[in-house]
Amino acid sequence: MIRLDGVLRVKKILQSRNGPFAVGTLSTAIGTFKVKDQLLDAFDEGEYQVTAWIAEVFLGQYTTGTGTSITEIRARLQDLQVRSEAASPQDSEEVAEPDPLDEPPPAPRRPAIPARMPPAGATPSPAPAPTARPTTRGWIQPPTASPAAAAPASAAPVEPPGAEGPDLSAFSEDLAVLIRERKPVKLDPTIDRVNYREQTRQLRQNLGYTFRATEQTFYPA
């Protein structure tokens, strides 16, 4: 992983069968990279001064509708810190960008190592208990083995369509409570990308929230 300071220019792509999404161009002292990470779907179009922690740099390729083959250097982010933002619309021209949801998933970095079978009659050793691990946002504690943690929080519907008040079925119960109380909401960019886009769309269009990039948090208007 490498740490780079630079300028991230975010462009919104409105024409997609999976809904609007965002792509970024990260300009740094060592080069320029395309960024298509899911977390950008929450950003407004504009220019941001950032510090980026890059997990991987690789070549990406796609073919435009006119048959032109495009090869670009992409960066996959581990983390992103926004120091300042100028989230004003850039040019209104729609660029030809493939939806990341329509691209094949990235190949695994390393081949899987087959597990060794224990000798006959041997008793397998118990798996070690998970421990906390550091990240750029602090320490992440391992999940507990409680029944409530067995299902992803983001997948639990909260209100059936037609219930009194706004439809918050795209949000987890914890997020729905914050929305009802008109409190700031920080989304999880590791959930399913379709659901993540729907959450950002609902917050902006139906629930009166705006995105503050320096905190990567939605605030009620």
Task: Provide a descriptive summary of the structure in words.
- It is a single chain.
- The model is unreliable at 146-163 (pLDDT under 50).
- The chain has a five-stranded antiparallel beta sheet with strand order 3-2-1-4-5, with no helix packed on it.
- The chain has helices spanning 173-180, 193-206; strands at residues 2-13, 21-28, 31-35, 46-63, 69-86, 133-135, 138-140, 209-212, 217-220.
- The protein starts with a strand and ends with a strand.
- Helices cover 10% and strands 34% of the residues.
- The longest helix has 14 residues, at 193-206.
- The radius of gyration is 20 Å and the shape is globular.
- It is mainly beta and 221 residues long.
- It is built from two helices and nine strands.
Beta-strand content bin: 25-35%
Number of helices: 2
Q: Termini separation (Å)? A: 37 Å
Uncertain runs are: 146-163
What is the number of E strands?
A: 9
Give me the Rg, rounded.
20 Å
The outline comes out as globular
Output mean pLDDT. Answer: 80
Strand order, biggest sheet? 3-2-1-4-5
- Tell me the helix content: under 10%
Q: What does the main sheet amount to?
A: 5 strands, antiparallel
Question: SSE order, as H and E?
Answer: EEEEEEEHHEE
Structural class: mainly beta
